[in-house]
Amino acid sequence: MEFDLVFLSRLQFALTIMFHYLFPPLTIGLGVVLVYLGAMSLRTGDAAYRQAQKFWTRVFGLNFAIGVASGIVMEFQFGTNWATYSRFVGDVFGSALAAEGIFAFFLESGFLAVLIFGWNRVGPKMHFFSTCMVAMGSIFSSVWIVVANSWQQTPSGSAIVPMTRQVLGDNGQPLLDANGEVLTQPWVIDGVPVMRAEITDFWEMVFNPSTVHRLTHVLLGCLVMGAFFVLSISAWYILKNKHVDFAKRSFTGALVLAAISSIAIALSGHRQAQNVYEYQPAKLAAFEGHFDSEGAADLTLFGIPDAEEEAVQMRIAIPGALSFMVHDDLSFSEPVIGLDKIRPEDRPPLWIPFLSWRLMVGAGTFFIALTLLSCALLWRGTLFEHRWLMWIYVGNVLLAVMANQVGWVAAEVGRQPWIVHPSIVRNDAGEPVLDAQGFIQYERVTATLPDGSNDQRFAGLRTDDGVSKAVEAEQVAASIVMFLFIYLLLGAVWLFVLNKKIQTGPDPPDSGFGTSSATSLLQLGARRTAEQRMAEAGTEPQVIANNEVSP
Amino acid sequence: MICVTNLLLLGQSMIPDFSRETLAFVWFVLLAVLLIGYAILDGFDLGVGILHPFVAQNDHERRLVMNSIGPLWDGNEVWLVTFGGALFAAFPEAYATVFSGFYLALMLLLCALILRAVSLEFRGKVHSPRWRKAWDLMFFAGSTLATFLFGVAVGNMMLGVPLDGNHEFVGRFTELLNPYSLAVGIMAVLAFALHGSIYLYLKTEGEFQQRLRPVMWRMFFLFAAFYAVITTWTAIAAPRSLTTLNEMPILWVVPILNLLAVLNIPRAIHKGIEGHAFFSSSCMIAALVFLFITALFPFLVPASNDPSHSLTILNAASSQKTLKIMLLIALLGLPCVLTYSGVIYWTFRGKVKLDETSY
């Protein structure tokens, strides 16, 4: 592994985005929770909702601040470290980013002020409106970022065109031709024409083939994150016997959200995998370590991928399951394109996508099992008696963070060696066209050079070609050290302050408790258990009061 | 989403097909608007940060100073973020050249902005004098360094930077730290400090407010001295900056208005109408940014080594289609942005008071 400019720039990007991406899923997920709490607080006037709303808003504000502070880095970074990439994609990618600024950031940051500082300044309705705006802003933000990213994965609505530029005179003034028009010439550097992607159809770019699938998956990931975050803190309170009523209500509500979103994300993941296979078969093959394009495709459960031997060592697999996953093929026999159909220089690295994809799917499966089990226990009314389960929930938030992180890692590393993925050449039936050596072909564009010759290149951009030329490796290394230091500091302080907030806990509720759907679910369970036990003991069932669930 | 889609489709049919040249010019103006908006708005909260250790004497006052910008600074900074995004989309070549060319300076800027942002959030979370002192220092250092670097960047753009034929920066980091640019950096710090001191005066009351009076005066005289020096220095060091003004003499109105705005600040402070002083310092900042942009025009990044390597508005612009779509996005978004910015500023009007939700 060489510590060259490309490697260091990628390392820097990975470091900064992975740190940044700790926070957006939390804020988006918590934002939805806040909207729910705000709506219920308005509708029922229940002080407990207001209590919960205030507590989770404080936590939200803390996460938001670091999310914004670390997010500013991302926007600058395209220009600082990936200048050549910026020149190539600016016309397309930039517009999505600018839309994010105008439609999302202003909305978010403006109303965040009301959300956090406005409790005594505006009425409850205005406060609720602001909560909705902040949640909407953070969702809009993810929409535009996923749009921009998805376009890089499955470009559409754009064309790669050779560029021309103004001819400037000695004083920098534009020169005019005989007709008085500004003189332009084809832009060629060292015999290579300068190309860039330009928008041909904005909406086709926005709704490119993978946008909707990826967006659904990302947003569900955020909900899972938010739910497990609330579950973790609530479980901790239950274990420590603090704020128990508040904690049980928060837990119950978040559990329902966690169960629904865990199941939904598995379904969305399945559809997305098929979408990835259709447009980026190399990526899915790397996820699976799948080399063999002939015959039924097995789904690897465990193994050690080996790029040299083009196989997975020590493999345990379900026969034909990959055929089913990719094609919904019930005969478990349809072939799946493998890495052997991809030119060696166009293959993604194997280990990182293979491992991160497995970790993500594994975590997702565990979430479904965990939440369904918990729902069953909630129904029986014994959920909170299982301390081991509460401990699992306390730690499970880390698994949710990991699942979100490795999901992105799988998506981004699986795209390599391309930073902008070229489309696959297809025949009229939509089948990929293979070249003479049996490899899948990527689309190419042709530019005419000033001497009349033609230059052909891929309709995409390799990551190696995207870095800044004006920057030296030492500078990037220095910036990595700087960010590492700042992020370690921020991460530590964030944990410290978050811990303090959790230790302090929610304010006491302003007035008495009312009923809510979360309590009624709780009560239902509690009542059933009580009745059961009474029946076993042969005594009269007692009336369960509203506050029965609190100690 | 669908609503936005329909509006955009409707808008697309209503906007005439301007040429790429016209649209590029429009975007040059819009970027100027974003930059002016940013400088005025973040200008006062950066200024408050610069003054923080010098005006607040105890913890209560330090909290007051921070809370005077508490609900607003984040929204103000979004102007910068949007400026960055718009530059990326409208003039990708310039975005790439400047950001990669000023690499180390930008990394320092990011560092300053991050530490400043989190110091506001973290400071009040722990009741320990040492903890608070540390974040106070971060708040001051972040605000000052960020402002200074903005000024240095402006200075370098006025002088032009060495570029090769591919529009890549070929100079060294140390060359960016030339005397002229450093002086512009100091002027930026003083301008924002002056702007911030007037803002802080408007947001406070009582004895603390009275102590801000001499601060405003001091900042004004310091700024005025630098303003005079830099104006002269610019005419000598960057004579090209006067080209546009001389080609369109009507634009000389701006430097004259600028001077009047600067002169009106002491007058308003003296008469006790600080609201007018704040308006004047806003106009002063707007005029300075405007003059910076006019000095660049029609270039975005002038090359100091070989003028034909310069990045012009047209050489750096996106395609006609993108510029048009972005114009629609801006026309659709800006009224919303201005409306809710207005709502937020109205909600948090009046003197700053500490309560349970304060930092």
How would you describe this protein?
Chain B: It is a multi-pass membrane protein. Chain B: It is found in: Cell membrane. Chain B: Belongs to the cytochrome ubiquinol oxidase subunit 2 family. Chain B: The chain crosses the membrane at residues 22-41, 94-116, 137-159, 179-202, 214-236, 248-265, 277-301, 325-348. Chain A has 551 residues and is mostly helical. Chain A folds into 2 domains: 1-157 and 472-503, no CATH class; 213-421 and 460-471, no CATH class. Chain A is 60% helix and 9% strand. Chain A has helices at residues 5-20, 24-44, 47-81, 83-117, 124-153, 202-206, 211-240, 244-279, 281-288, 321-327, 351-380, 387-413, 473-504, 517-537, and strands at 158-162, 164-166, 184-186, 188-189, 192-193, 195-199, 299-306, 311-318, 418-420, 444-448, 454-458, 461-462. Chain A has a two-stranded antiparallel ribbon with strand order 1-6. Chain A has a two-stranded antiparallel sheet with strand order 2-3. In chain A, strands 4-5 form a two-stranded antiparallel sheet. In chain A, strand 10 (444-448) and strand 11 (454-458) form a beta hairpin. Chain A is globular, with a radius of gyration of 27 Å. The model of chain A is unreliable at 511-515 and 543-551 (pLDDT under 50). With 359 residues, chain B is an all-alpha fold. Chain B is 78% helix and 1% strand. A two-stranded antiparallel ribbon of chain B has the order 1-2. Chains A and B meet through helix 3, helix 4, strand 6 and helix 13 of A and helix 1, helix 4, helix 5, helix 6 and helix 15 of B.
State the gist of this model.
The complex is a heterodimer of chains A (551) and B (359). Chain A has 551 residues and is mainly α.
